[in-house]
Structures are given as structure tokens and as C-alpha cells.
Design a protein that fits this description.
With about 160 residues, the protein is α+β, with helices and mostly antiparallel strands. It has three helices and eight strands; from the N terminus they run βααββββββαβ. About 15% of the residues are buried.
């Protein structure tokens, strides 16, 4: 299994506490879902704590939905949380969200994703660049959506 890692890093004009608190919101995942993904949150339990579970369904073909189950496996209040896919389209998926203060009124959001496509080398050759473009677009959207939800803008970074 060939693991790939990507990082998306943006600075926001809000405190680290406000940035982290956004992720605690019940609607945070819905706000962060790009409209082109044709996905829906089925359930979300446990907030951000270790053991929390999120079930998402994403449409892969008309009438065909794929279920993605993410389980939180790390949490540090105010600074970090992480989830891994228990079930989904990837052979491996782990997403670490880290918030770092930059003074009293600015903060950084780092999203680090480690993933592997099913079918290994074959999938990497056939779909690797396409998957990377989709991830780039999705996390650009997510960082912009976070800024909008917080009434600010992405003021530096913005991607990998």
C-alpha cells in the first residue's frame, strides 16, 4: 500500500480558540462539505472526542451511494483532533486537524491527510492525479468555508 500525504495550511483572522470552537459546532461538517461532492452527513455522534463517529454517504453514480465511516482516534482540546476511516473509498485514510495560535487574534489551521487508494500502484497510476486535484479543491473550499463561517478571510497560506 503506497501512502500519500498532503497538507493544507491556512492562517485566519480569528483566535485559535474561535477557530477550534468552529469545529465543535453541530453543523461544522455540513458547512465544510463542498456542494459538488454530492454527499450527506447520515450521523455524527461524540463530537470531536476520541471514539466519536461520523457516517457520510456520497453519491458515486445516480442512485448509488457509498458509505464512509470516520472514527476519531486523537483529541487535544483547543489544539488538535484526528480521525481515520473505518470504512470508505480509500484503502487508508487518516486526517489530523491542528490549530495553532499566531498571536491573540490570528491562528493557523493545518489539515494533514495520509491516504492510500485501493488497488495500490494501479490506482495511483490511473487515478492518483485526479484524487489529488479533488483533495486540493475540497480543502481549498473547506478553508474558505471556515473563514466565511467565522466572518473572516484566509489571510495567508491557503493550501499545500
Amino acid at each position: 500500500m503506497a501512502l500519500q500525504t498532503v497538507q493544507y495550511r491556512s492562517r485566519f483572522g480569528v483566535s485559535a480558540a474561535a477557530l477550534f470552537a468552529f469545529h465543535h459546532r453541530d453543523d461544522a461538517l455540513s458547512v465544510l462539505m463542498p456542494p459538488w461532492e454530492r454527499a450527506r452527513v447520515v450521523s455524527r455522534t461524540g463530537g470531536l472526542a476520541v471514539g466519536a463517529r461520523t457516517v457520510i454517504e456520497t453519491r458515486v453514480l445516480p442512485g448509488v451511494w457509498l458509505r464512509w465511516v470516520a472514527v476519531h482516534d486523537a483529541f487535544e482540546e483547543g489544539t488538535m483532533f484526528a480521525d481515520r476511516a473505518e470504512r470508505g473509498p480509500f484503502a487508508h485514510w487518516r486526517h489530523v486537524h491542528r490549530v495553532t495560535a499566531e498571536g491573540a487574534s490570528e491562528s493557523w489551521l493545518d489539515d494533514t491527510i495520509t491516504y492510500a487508494l485501493p488497488l495500490g500502484f494501479v490506482a495511483d497510476r490511473v487515478a492518483g492525479a485526479w484524487v489529488r486535484r479533488r483533495l486540493d479543491a475540497m480543502f481549498r473550499f473547506r478553508h474558505e468555508a471556515t473563514a466565511r463561517a467565522l466572518g473572516t478571510a484566509v489571510i495567508a497560506g491557503h493550501g499545500r
